[in-house]
Specification:
Radius of gyration: 14 Å
Distance between the termini: 44 Å
Number of helices: 3
Length: about 90
């Protein structure tokens, strides 16, 4: 059964920063829900050690869900939403 992207029940993309951010930015939810959304972002998407803010987690890798082009990016890129920044590499 396909679940919505960003659903906590998904093995991939169980949290999506777009949904979390929109809940706060739009002021469409009560403050207690906005606070929970931002707590989830801090807990699951902010990686302080590498100074990275993920757009979603865990990344799309083997899911049957079709989120579009982001699924085609290599795993390291998909973790950051397919941006041009990839993890640092030794030269």
């Amino acid at each position: 059964m396909a679940r919505r992207l960003g659903s906590a029940q998904n093995a991939e993309c169980s949290i999506d920063s777009i949904a979390q951010s929109w809940a706060v930015l739009s002021a469409a939810v009560p403050t207690r829900f906005a606070d929970r959304a931002m707590d989830a972002v801090r807990s699951h998407l902010v990686q302080r050690g590498s100074q990275t803010l993920l757009l979603l987690a865990p990344p799309f890798d083997q899911s049957f869900q079709d989120p579009g082009y982001i699924k085609g990016y290599p795993r390291a890129c998909a973790r950051t939403g397919g941006s041009t920044r990839t993890p640092p590499r030794g030269w």
